[in-house]
Amino acid sequence: MRPRSTPMQRSTGKRSPPQWMEEEGKTGTSCALDCGAGIGRITKRLLLPLFSTVDLVDVTQEFLDKAKAYLGEDGRKVGNYICKGLQDFVPASGRYDVIWIQWVIGHLTDNHLVEFLRRCQKALRPNGLIIIKDNVSYEGVVPDEVDSSICRDLEIIHNLVSRAGLHILHEEQQKNFPKEIYQVYSLALR
């Protein structure tokens, strides 16, 4: 669900809102939340060009400290650096136009993910969206012994989204990936 940009937008660094932000009612551009933000790559390259303010949440303080340096001057648009695991994090009610969750749902149990998504839904502004972008297994749940995460198949993710009381407004599979690696899907939820 990467925003499409024209050559002019790429050369100036300015981006127009992705098409999915225009569907099902225009999504605002006031404030976004980057969940599992790490050092802020998604914040810098995607969210800061689109939103007036971005909050970052990550379980590792060291990553958030590195994000401040990585974001540099762009960091002036960061509202909050929050060090907390998503299973315990409660986003501020009604604060966010977009909550971006990338490469992190595999670190949450099913129940933690459902509860987190419910809290995120309460944190959305009118016409706000929750975006999940993550690896998706071809079948079932696949554990990763290296980082103790899991990779779920699309049907399981759909069921967890439904359990959280959310609806999928847009779903997109990233194309041209080799069959030997996981699929990557993006889902826009409300």
Looking at this protein, list some descriptive labels:
disordered N terminus; 9 strands; alpha/beta; single chain; 190 residues; two-stranded antiparallel ribbon; 7-stranded mixed sheet; globular
- Give the spatial strand order of the biggest sheet: 3-2-1-4-5-9-8
Outline the biggest β-sheet: 7 strands, mixed
Number of strands: 9
- Rough shape? globular
Terminal CA distance reads 15 Å
Proportion in β-strands? 25-35%
Which H/E pattern describes the elements? HHEHEHEEHEEEHEE
Uncertain spans, ≥5 residues at pLDDT below 50? 1-14
Our Rg estimate from Cα atoms comes to 16 Å
Mean pLDDT: 91
Assembly type of the chains comes to single chain
Number of helices: 6
> Helical percent range?
25-40%
Structural class: alpha/beta
Describe the model.
The protein has 190 residues and is an alpha/beta fold. Helix content is 29%, strand content 31%. The chain is built from six helices and nine strands. The protein has helices at 7-12, 19-22, 41-50, 61-71, 110-123, 154-163; strands at 31-35, 53-58, 78-83, 96-102, 124-136, 141-144, 149-152, 168-173, 183-189. The strands form two sheets. The protein has a seven-stranded mixed beta sheet with strand order 3-2-1-4-5-9-8, sandwiched between helices. It has a two-stranded antiparallel sheet with strand order 6-7. The protein is globular and about 45 Å long. The two termini are 15 Å apart. Mean pLDDT is 91; it is low at 1-14.
